[in-house]
Amino acid sequence: MNLLPQGMQTLIDALGALPGVGSRTAERYAYYLIRHDPAKAQQLASALSGLHSSIAYCPKTFALIDADETVSPLYEDPKRDKTLVAVVAEPLDIVALEKTSAFHGTYHVLGGLISPIDGVTPDELHIRELVARIKEDKVQEIILATNASVEGETTALYIQQQLEGSDVKISRLARGLPVGADLEYADQITLSRALEGRQLL
Amino acid sequence: MNLLPQGMQTLIDALGALPGVGSRTAERYAYYLIRHDPAKAQQLASALSGLHSSIAYCPKTFALIDADETVSPLYEDPKRDKTLVAVVAEPLDIVALEKTSAFHGTYHVLGGLISPIDGVTPDELHIRELVARIKEDKVQEIILATNASVEGETTALYIQQQLEGSDVKISRLARGLPVGADLEYADQITLSRALEGRQLL
């Protein structure tokens, strides 16, 4: 015997497919939607139905764009410096960097990170397009803004090797203590990177 | 300028309405759905569209039921004892109690807990229906299975007062140390309840 109505169980199963959502969380989401205005569930349903048809990937930067745009509006913005490119793993990394308001160049989304365990090889990432873009846009500096993880470091190293011989400057995001962190609680690797990258005052 | 396509932003806003989902989590869910098979998003969309039309509340126990059922199948099950009723706040509490396999009575869902702060008065809960049910089903014992919170205790006390004079047995879920818990780390109230409710061996 089912303890929950079929319609609710179907929704719980579908919600359970989202990352980090277990059955308890899915139950909570489903029950919230049941208790509230049906309009809320319909709104979410229509946002989901329209999702894939309304978005596209920019063929130049591989950022997410509206389906009716041809190139990322950020890339086309004349105020942005096309000769400075931040290389990121995923489109959402652009949002994180833009929130700092500290970067005025353009972006290049790799579409993932090299990960032999997950079977992601360099060929599946937009590295070739990055190399082509360096020539087309006369790029002068590339900032490798990948995660501070094994996959992020591997991908950064691979791109660095691919660009050997070209005269583009390559930099990487600084590693060190996060702002507000206690030195006492920092892990050894972060601390040794902070030492290596120490800055003269 | 929008950093994300409109379709994705609409979905993020709709997902952000779910309980405990902030903008970062909503972004993660939305990006997961974008990267995966469009069928997954469609599946979720159709589960949501059909949600409210496929479910109903049992008029007797106020549990969630399929729209084509008239009464909760658990209540109609001849193996369940109708004279023993567990009173719970929400339909999902039934799932939690059923998972124990330790209860063979039936349920009564209040549809919330008395909470003056949130403006929930006893009139909005299915307490009248509980009183009526006691006569109809010749209920002999009521287990007040509300949360161990202020609202849960208040509601239990209110129901107890409403049933004064009737000869139905009223019990409450035991309060005490959760199984596996360290006495050292238990809070004072839990510990004093565990002392009050000590059992002779």
**Protein chains sharing the most extensive interface:** A-B, 58 and 59 residues
Helix and strand content put the structural class of chain A at: alpha/beta
Distance between the termini of chain A: 71 Å
Please state the CA-atom Rg of chain A, rounded to the nearest Å.
22 Å
- Strand percentage of chain A lies at 5-15%
Mean pLDDT of chain A: 91
Q: Report the top-level CATH class of one domain in chain A.
A: Alpha Beta
List the helices and strands of chain A in order: HHHEEHEHEHEHEH
Shape descriptor of chain A: globular
Instruction: Give me the side-by-side strand order of the main sheet of chain A.
Output: 4-3-5-6
Q: Looking at the chains present, what oligomeric state does this protein adopt? A: homodimer
Query: What is the number of E strands of chain A?
Result: 6
Question: What is the third-level CATH name, the topology of one domain in chain A?
Answer: Dna Topoisomerase Vi A Subunit, Chain: A, domain 2
Number of discrete helical segments of chain A: 8
CATH-level-2 architecture of one domain in chain A: 3-Layer(aba) Sandwich
- State the helical fraction of chain A: 40-55%
Main β-sheet of chain A: number of strands, strand sense, barrel status? 4 strands, parallel
Low-confidence stretches of chain A: none
